[in-house]
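$ ./design --mode recover --in tokens.txt
reading tokens...
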């Protein structure tokens, strides 16, 4: 099998899948419009006839070009494949899928499946979802925000440690350590490591503990493979180099922090456009929420909060309320009893 043929099969398979997925293409237009009794005058087909059905042209060179452009607009990533494919081969792959959809459309109409209650129910649900999607889209398009360079820079500084794609290296403190079971032994070793020439490593050699040295490499707040409590204590070391003793879960660690590497980030200028889009989106979301809150007041939205209370809470509140039959009588009896005592 040639590489070209293999690529054609791959593209063809993907195109077929996407064409047959609900909502991927707008080929069921006629059926849906007829079902909901919306009359739209269809433009006459122009161009050379490519496919006819029952003696009537259904696909032409011009309509095929529209189908192809629609598909590529839905899935722009496929434009990258076009340079390595024969254009006629791509057109034919798409054509086959359009034919498939036309056949399905004709079968549905001819057998009046689009007149069944099940179909109408599904169609109504689909239309409702589309209307909601369009309402949300156009509602959001009315929200206009502006973003300054200072806001983008501030966002970069505040989120550079957490946003994917910004941080290149987490940095951290280069650390080794030895675990001891009792504090006195650990403290004695730390004292020796701080005083003996050669430091931590030489002290470990003298005490026969070299094999017990654990190399944590660079330790930072995101490090894994090291106890979280110990990690946080190492990250908290203020001055490096340093030899410190830490108690963790009944064990005692003498750690040797030798150097500190600062985090490395992608330059701000490389990310500015991407960050601007994110800041704009965040501001739009804030503006959207503000607008929705105002509209809630304007449209006088009221929620039956009692409905969402846990069942036991509702029962307690009902028990605490006086009943119609005996509540008032019981209150009157208590008032009479109080008056008698005062008398």
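writing sequence...
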């Amino acid at each position: 099998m040639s590489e070209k043929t293999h690529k054609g099969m791959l593209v063809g398979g993907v195109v077929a899948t996407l064409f047959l997925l609900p909502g991927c293409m707008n080929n069921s237009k006629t059926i849906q419009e007829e079902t909901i009794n919306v009359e739209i005058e269809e433009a006459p087909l122009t161009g050379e006839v490519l496919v006819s059905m029952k003696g009537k042209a259904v696909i032409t060179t011009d309509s095929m070009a529209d189908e192809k452009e629609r598909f590529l607009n839905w899935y722009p990533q496929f434009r990258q494949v076009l340079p390595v494919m024969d254009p006629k081969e791509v057109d034919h792959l798409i054509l086959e899928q359009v034919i498939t959809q036309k056949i399905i459309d004709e079968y549905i109409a001819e057998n009046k499946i689009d007149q069944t209650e099940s179909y109408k129910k599904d169609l109504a649900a689909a239309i409702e979802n589309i209307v909601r999607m369009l309402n949300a889209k156009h509602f959001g398009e009315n929200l206009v925000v502006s973003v300054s360079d200072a806001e983008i820079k501030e966002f970069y500084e505040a989120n550079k440690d957490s946003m994917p794609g910004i941080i290149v290296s987490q940095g951290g403190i280069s650390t080794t350590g030895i675990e001891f079971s009792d504090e006195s032994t650990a403290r004695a070793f730390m004292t020796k490591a701080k005083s003996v020439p050669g430091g931590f490593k030489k002290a470990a050699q003298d005490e026969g503990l070299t094999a017990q040295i654990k190399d944590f490499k660079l330790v930072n707040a995101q490090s894994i493979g090291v106890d979280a409590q110990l990690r946080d204590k190492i990250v908290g070391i203020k001055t490096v180099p340093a030899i410190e003793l830490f108690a963790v879960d009944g064990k005692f660690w003498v750690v040797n922090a030798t150097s500190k590497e600062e985090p490395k980030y992608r330059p701000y200028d490389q990310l500015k456009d991407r960050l601007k889009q994110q800041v704009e989106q965040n501001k739009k979301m804030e503006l959207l929420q503000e607008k929705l809150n105002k509209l809630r007041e304007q449209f006088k939205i009221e929620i039956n909060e009692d409905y969402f209370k846990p069942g036991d809470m509702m029962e307690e509140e009902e028990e605490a309320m006086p009943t119609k039959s005996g509540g008032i009588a019981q209150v009157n009896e208590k008032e009479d009893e109080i008056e008698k005592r005062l008398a």
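exit 0
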